[in-house]
Amino acid sequence: QLQASGGGLVQTGGSLRLSCAASGLTVSTRVMAWFRQPPGKGREFVAGMTWSDSSARNAEFVKGRFTISRDNAKNTVYLQMNSLQPEDTAVYYCAARGGLITVLSDSPSQYRSWGQGTQVTVSS
């Protein structure tokens, strides 16, 4: 089970840190990712991290503004978001691929476990 939190209302240029607390699975042994779903649009990949070598990759639209990280002791994954823009407004979801899978994927269909989503709203 994944529990996402940390969303909220922020002004343009502001920052938020999203958290994804895991239970029943260990984030240090899973490919973990953040997706988002803007209003009226489909779910899109934001950032992800592998467990085998801890490599991370962001979507192009992130442009260095967001950072995914992991705290193994807390079994939690984070998404630090800086320089937020109105187009970042969306529901943000954390997700985990199945156990022993090492490849990071951009496709939501490749993820087995999902958090409930947390709303991020950026005002102009």
Short key terms for the protein model shown above:
7-stranded mixed β-sheet; 46% strand; single chain; mainly beta; 124 residues
The count of β-strands is 11
Mean pLDDT: 95
Separation, N- and C-terminal Cα atoms: 34 Å
> What is the ordering of alpha helices and beta strands?
EEEEEEEEEEE
Tell me about this structure.
The chain is mostly beta strands and 124 residues long. It has no helices and eleven strands. The strands form two sheets. Strands 2, 4, 5, 6, 9, 10 and 11 form a seven-stranded mixed β-sheet that branches. It has a four-stranded antiparallel β-sheet with strand order 1-3-8-7, with no helix packed on it. Strand 4 (32-37) and strand 5 (44-49) form a beta hairpin. It is globular, with a radius of gyration of 13 Å. The N and C termini lie far apart (34 Å).
Annotate the secondary structure layout.
Blueprint (H helix, E strand, L loop, with lengths): L1 E4 L2 E4 L4 E7 L9 E6 L6 E6 L6 E3 L7 E6 L4 E6 L8 E7 L16 E2 L3 E6 L1
Question: What can be said about this structure in brief?
Answer:
By secondary structure, the protein is mainly beta. Helices cover 0% and strands 46% of the residues. The N and C termini lie far apart (34 Å).
